[in-house]
Amino acid sequence: MGLSDRGWRGRTLPFLVIAVSVISADGLRVRQPRCPFGCTCTKDNALCENVRSVPHTFPPDVVSLSFVKTGFSGITGGSFVHTPVLQLLLFTGNSFDFIDEDAFMGLPHLEYLFIENNKIASISPNAFRGLKGLLHLSLAYNNLETLPRDVFSGMEALTKVDLRGNNLICDCKLKWLVEWMHHTNATLDEIYCSGPPSYQGKRLNDLLPHSFDCITSEFASYQSLKFESISVEAFTFGMDQYVVFAQPFAGTCNFLEWDHVEMTFRTYDTIESTSTVVCKPMFIKIQDIDILKIRKPNDIETFMIEGESYFVIADSSKAGSTTVYKWNGNGFYSHQSLHHCSQRPVIYQWNRSQNQFERRTDIPDMEDVFSVKHFHVKGELFICLTRFIGDSKVMRWDGAMFKELQTFPSRGSMVFQPVSIGKWQYAILGSDYSLTQVYQWDAKKGQFVPSQELNIQAPRSFSVLFVDSRVFLLASSFKGKTQIYEHLIIDLSNSTF
């Protein structure tokens, strides 16, 4: 009885142990997950080859999982929530090209993640979210040109990151990575830049955050005004900011003020006139200018010489004279007539002893110039010359003459105006036939480069207004709505994709 009893127990004990392992607490039989089709499983490792999707079930002891030559297009969100015990995950020799948001969600124990020799071209910003315990991350030998900002955020345990073998473009989108490399405790293998040309072949590890010039600017549409205008002037009076538009069709100078509460420009006042061409803010009417002397006024400019105030009215008629007026304490009186028959721009120089302008020279090969505007860059003097047919030009003063620096195709242009805002120097070329072109001064090239396009119908004048720590570009329109743009400063290194 005893021997027989002991022999039965010896033979049946293994069966009893197995039976306990497959029966749940409530008495229901539980089936253990099998190794998925297309995968090979050992005690704690699984290798999947040529599978078309990430399997959802693996044996519970699998802590290491590898994918080779798979047929899926990317690693999608939540692909591994059913394998929470994984410690190592490897992808190699696959053809997928993207990693989705929360691709590795639900893997709190993952320490090693190798995504190597695949075709990954893009990674979502939160692809690695939740991998707080990850020690080693490899994205080596993929098709990455950039990485989303702060993609490694929250991965404080990282000790090693491998980005070798990618085509990284070391531009402003990767400035964050350079900053991160200088603050992280993780080590990175040598990474070489594939672009831009100025950094091609250089080590990303050697770059510094200040190596990147990532601050740029743009004009963004802010407010559209329902009237046509031919000129615009911005000015300050009584600590408030105003704008005045000349409206030739309505015969008014239309004043707008900045509303500090609504953050818009609103009508303040109007002054009636006849065929209004230019409105210069003087605040009170003190005199009339004899219209017999000014046949076809084209522009008005104010200036000071040796503490005395002047203004000049440019006359575009063939029989008229451009006239300089001087303030005598009670009003402006005619000081000098600048009459010339040349169709080219003429340069006049102030003669101190004679207290007037004297003709110096003209600018050759620049017939039919509509207007001339000047600006300074680092102490050098430049002018913008506008032509309706032909090329408008930027010229630089060399001490004796204005020499051509740059030409701009300008069919239908009536305004080519330089505009300075902080460290930015612009030249805005308007056109009656196409979009307005904004050019930005490139200090390295010493000339203007294209910046952006603005949709303004028949622009005639631009002015800049600074108010409430904001900057606005005011654009008159002769055949459409007057436009107001805000000047925005943009940090390209903060952009996401």
Automatic annotation (TrEMBL):
<feature type="signal peptide">
    <location>
        <begin position="1"/>
        <end position="27"/>
    </location>
</feature>
<keyword id="KW-0770">Synapse</keyword>
<keyword id="KW-0677">Repeat</keyword>
<dbReference type="InterPro" id="IPR051295">
    <property type="entry name" value="LGI_related"/>
</dbReference>
<keyword id="KW-0732">Signal</keyword>
<dbReference type="InterPro" id="IPR009039">
    <property type="entry name" value="EAR"/>
</dbReference>
<dbReference type="InterPro" id="IPR001611">
    <property type="entry name" value="Leu-rich_rpt"/>
</dbReference>
<dbReference type="Pfam" id="PF01463">
    <property type="entry name" value="LRRCT"/>
</dbReference>
<dbReference type="InterPro" id="IPR005492">
    <property type="entry name" value="EPTP"/>
</dbReference>
<dbReference type="InterPro" id="IPR011041">
    <property type="entry name" value="Quinoprot_gluc/sorb_DH_b-prop"/>
</dbReference>
<dbReference type="GO" id="GO:0042552">
    <property type="term" value="P:myelination"/>
</dbReference>
<keyword id="KW-0325">Glycoprotein</keyword>
<keyword id="KW-0433">Leucine-rich repeat</keyword>
<dbReference type="Pfam" id="PF03736">
    <property type="entry name" value="EPTP"/>
</dbReference>
<dbReference type="GO" id="GO:0005615">
    <property type="term" value="C:extracellular space"/>
</dbReference>
<keyword id="KW-0964">Secreted</keyword>
<dbReference type="GO" id="GO:0005737">
    <property type="term" value="C:cytoplasm"/>
</dbReference>
<feature type="domain" description="LRRCT">
    <location>
        <begin position="166"/>
        <end position="215"/>
    </location>
</feature>
<dbReference type="Pfam" id="PF13855">
    <property type="entry name" value="LRR_8"/>
</dbReference>
<dbReference type="GO" id="GO:0045202">
    <property type="term" value="C:synapse"/>
</dbReference>
<keyword id="KW-0963">Cytoplasm</keyword>
<dbReference type="InterPro" id="IPR000483">
    <property type="entry name" value="Cys-rich_flank_reg_C"/>
</dbReference>
<dbReference type="InterPro" id="IPR032675">
    <property type="entry name" value="LRR_dom_sf"/>
</dbReference>
<dbReference type="InterPro" id="IPR003591">
    <property type="entry name" value="Leu-rich_rpt_typical-subtyp"/>
</dbReference>
<protein>
    <recommendedName>
        <fullName>Leucine-rich glioma-inactivated protein 1</fullName>
    </recommendedName>
</protein>
